[in-house]
From TrEMBL:
WD repeats lie at residues 115-157, 158-200, 202-243. One of its GO terms (biological process) is positive regulation of TORC1 signaling. This is GATOR2 complex protein WDR24. InterPro entries: WD40/YVTN_repeat-like_dom_sf, WD40_repeat_CS, WD40_repeat_dom_sf, WD40_rpt, WDR24. It comes from Ceratitis capitata (Mediterranean fruit fly). Belongs to the WD repeat WDR24 family. GO terms for cellular component: cytosol; GATOR2 complex; vacuolar membrane. CDD domains: mRING-H2-C3H3C2_WDR24 (cd16693), WD40 (cd00200). Pfam families: WD40 (PF00400). Keywords: Metal-binding, Repeat, WD repeat, Zinc, Zinc-finger. GO terms for molecular function: zinc ion binding. SMART domains: WD40.
Length: 789
């Protein structure tokens, strides 16, 4: 067995990665292989083709959308190839139609059957592994339908009690058993011979499940969800979670790798264009990755039992046959060294270490025996590296916290839950919200978030940016919009900037002079060039600066030009101004260019000018003074918090800022991703009220409509188990009774809140059910093991 596997692997190593563009009008949504694995069917909204697979590429065999009479039944979401007949195909269409195709038919009319029984979009189709005539489909209407391709109508309908069935797969271990995953996060197992009720149902994910796949040799079921996780469930008896893989994007497809027990391939539904092969024992970094596609991958399949060849299609309208030898190994490029800075100033450092000779000898027998057994497949082993962790702690005298202050180290989820419950998002002034939230984040040890809240408080708390005109400062190098600030107008500014030289010299010896900023009295008015303030000119404090305006620049002289620094005029002592002069400013070059050039010959002929002749530079239109704006800085800080995974802080700040957040110019698509991630996290910790509040406060329509989805509750009759969909109230059309409306404890009709078990379809008054299950575990009517919480 091992020799045949090694020879098959060596044959696959001779092949390389090949690709082909399949469609110019649209992209593919799914692919399927025939039983011989020499042909591939690709389906999409404007595509339904069959290609032959060769060593050097693909060749088109059949185009089933070539005719003129085409409708929505040709627009496919999924395609499946019969496991026992290479001429039979099935597709699931966007209008709910399930079509069966016979490739042996002559001409364009290859459509064998058209089942138009689903009320909404059909998401998936699958053929029975053991019976080539049995076909099942899952739809957005929450039903699973069984078809016999020899008949014109469906054989049976299974009601999943959910709004949408996204994927259906036949179990390779138990005949007639199928698995179905739904958008409400549940997994159901159905026996096709017992269609009244599922044989097993459990909640697998906190969000919609989009895909599932059975392990070929073990009784494991893999599920992929919008919560960016792949979970491996052991289906022996009651389902138990074996492994969890953490991905970076919503999982769209999963496929187990043949002849490798612990390897599974996955592709994302959005964002990530790569195909990753995971070792479920190392769930945080892919074992191998294929990065050939330039858009989201929509379908993947291994080429039969060959674990070295992977077929894929994508929204970039291409199909690829990936050779495993060409895959990228992210694990081998992972850095085994790292450093982390603690909030108290301590540093943790991990450095890569090598095995010593003694360690190699100690483990030599085990390693050598392992290599001898799998010498040809050494590339299938996960990259191994070892690190040594060191921690450097500052002395207590250098720590910014008081020694008496005791900081309780909480777990990450405790900090998240505490902040979610205590953060204030609206209802107060921005200053009060930022101050409160800064204290909350500091309480839970999120010091980066505390700093960011304090920044927002200082920069946006006064609401200055919302009151002024937004314009683009052409003199500034910043890319973000600038805000025009208008201080009080000043005339004859050169008179204010001058003081008596004698008074200045007398005050130069004052060592107690403080460095302050001169603030112009906003109440003082200037009329006709005469100020109403005191005529006495006081000596400005040492190191004082005032913001210059257009009027100041219009009257500035060459004598005090040396005091101009990047839009500021220094009015302190002359010696200090020379020490910190900035001669290379942009405004300096503009004024230097405007200076008159002296004619040396004329100067030699003319007499020297009088010593006190005033020289004044008149500027008709002064350039705008570059003013630093915080918008780009705050936007980058918020995006950094989102990149490190703290979407709680990013969303909370954006909501609290209100309309001011428009100044940050953050892409709405990115903000929507943050919203969905934060809401998923809140749902994971069962913070339903907080999640609903975030949805209501969102300014994005797609987010506000989240709490309006999945609001329907599909109920069944407690007597016969038939679905009550389409019935009035609790009336069962099969039993012709309303027994389900009665309380299982007291036997009276329930008016008001009704507690209902999805397993046995019995329920009753909320208070009665709570009292009953306080002392019992089984249903009072049928003995079902109800799990009431």
């Amino acid at each position: 067995m091992q020799k045949s596997q090694d020879s098959r692997d060596r044959g696959a190593e001779d092949l390389c990665t090949v690709s082909m563009r399949i469609c110019q009008e649209g992209h593919a949504n799914a692919l399927a292989l025939n039983k011989e694995c020499n042909q591939i069917a690709v389906a999409g909204r404007s595509l339904l083709k069959v290609f032959a697979i060769y060593s050097d590429g693909f060749t088109e065999v059949c185009n089933m959308r070539g005719g003129k009479n085409q409708n929505l039944s040709y627009s496919s979401n999924d395609v499946a190839w019969s496991t026992l007949d290479s001429n039979i195909l099935a597709t699931a269409a966007t209008n709910g139609v399930v079509s069966v195709w016979d490739l042996s038919r002559f001409g364009q009319k290859k459509q064998l059957h058209v089942y138009n029984e689903h009320e909404r979009t059909a998401h998936t189709v699958a053929f029975d592994i053991h019976d080539p005539h049995i076909l099942v489909s899952g739809s957005q209407d929450g039903t699973i339908k069984q078809f016999d391709v020899r008949n014109e109508k469906s054989s049976y309908t299974y009601y999943s009690n959910s709004e949408s069935v996204r994927d259906v797969k036949f179990s390779p271990h138990t005949q007639y058993v199928i698995s179905a995953v739904s958008e409400n996060g549940t997994v159901q197992l159905w026996d096709l011979r017992k269609g009244d009720k599922s044989i097993l149902q459990f909640t697998a994910h906190s969000g919609p499940i989009y895909t599932c796949d059975w392990h070929p040799t073990k009784n494991w079921l893999a599920t992929g969800s919008r919560d960016k996780q792949i979970k491996i469930w052991n289906m022996d008896g009651k389902a138990s979670l074996e492994h969890t893989i953490h991905t970076i994007a919503v999982v769209g497809r999963v496929k187990w790798r043949p002849d490798r027990i612990y390897h599974i391939a996955s592709c994302a539904l959005v964002v990530d264009y790569s195909i990753h092969v995971w070792d479920i024992r190392r769930p945080y970094i892919p074992f191998a990755s294929f990065n050939d596609h330039t858009n989201v991958t929509t379908g993947i399949a291994w080429k039969g039992d060959n674990s070295q060849l992977l077929l894929s299609t994508s929204k970039d309208s291409t199909i690829y046959r990936h050779a495993f030898k060409d895959a990228v190994r992210p694990s081998s490029k992972a850095n085994a060294q790292g450093a982390s800075l603690g909030h108290r100033g301590d540093i943790s450092f991990a450095r890569k270490i090598k095995l010593t000779t003694t360690e190699a000898v100690t483990h030599g027998s085990k390693i050598n025996s392992f290599v001898r057994q799998r010498s040809s497949n050494h590339e299938d082993q996960f990259h191994l590296a070892q690190s040594d962790v060191c921690q450097f702690i500052l002395k207590p005298s250098y720590i910014g916290y008081s020694l008496k202050e005791e900081i309780t180290h909480l777990k990450e989820h405790e900090c998240f839950i505490g902040c979610a419950k205590e953060l204030i998002l609206n209802g107060r002034k921005l200053v009060d919200i930022c101050e409160h939230n800064a204290n909350v984040t500091k309480k839970y040890g999120k010091h980066n978030a505390t700093t960011l809240w304090n920044f927002v408080k200082v920069l946006y708390g006064s609401n200055e940016f919302g009151k002024h005109e937004i314009h683009r400062n052409s003199f500034s190098k910043q890319k973000s919009v600038q805000t025009l600030r208008r201080p009080a107008q000043i005339t004859h500014a050169h008179e204010i900037l001058q003081w008596d030289r004698n008074e200045r010299n007398d005050n130069n010896n004052n060592d107690d002079m403080a460095d302050t900023v001169v603030q112009l009295d906003m109440d003082s008015t200037v009329m006709g060039g005469v100020s109403t303030t005191s005529s006495k000119q006081n000596y400005p404090p040492f190191g004082s600066v005032i913001l210059s305006e257009t009027q100041i620049l219009n009257e500035i002289t060459f004598d005090n030009f040396d005091l101009l620094r990047e839009g500021f005029i220094y009015v302190g002592p002359p010696d200090f101004s020379k020490m910190h002069s900035h001669q290379e400013s942009a405004l300096h070059h503009d004024v230097q260019a405007a200076r008159p050039h002296l004619d040396l010959k004329a100067e030699s002929k003319e007499a020297s000018p009088p010593p006190n002749t005033p020289s004044v530079l008149k500027v008709n239109s002064a350039p705008a003074i570059p003013i630093w704006e915080p918008h780009q800085f705050v936007a980058e800080s918020i995006m950094l918090q989102g990149d490190v995974g703290d979407v709680q802080t990013t969303i909370s700040i954006l909501i609290a800022m209100g309309e001011t957040r428009k100044l940050l110019q953050i892409d709405d698509a990115l903000v929507e991703t943050w919203f969905q991630t934060y809401i998923d996290q809140l749902h994971r910790y069962q913070l339903w009220n907080e999640a609903c509040k975030v949805m209501n406060l969102s300014w994005l329509r797609a987010v506000r409509e989240l709490n309006q989805q999945s609001t329907s509750v599909h109920t069944n009759c407690g007597e016969c188990g038939r679905s009550l969909a389409g019935s009035v109230g609790w009336y069962c059309q099969k039993c012709k009774s309303m027994q389900s409306s009665k309380c299982s404890v007291c036997g009276l009709i329930v008016r008001g809140l009704y507690a209902w078990c999805q397993g046995c379809s019995h329920g009753g008054h909320l208070e009665h059910i709570m009292d009953y299950f306080a002392n019992h575990f089984k249903c009072p009517k049928c003995g079902h093991l109800c799990e009431y919480n």
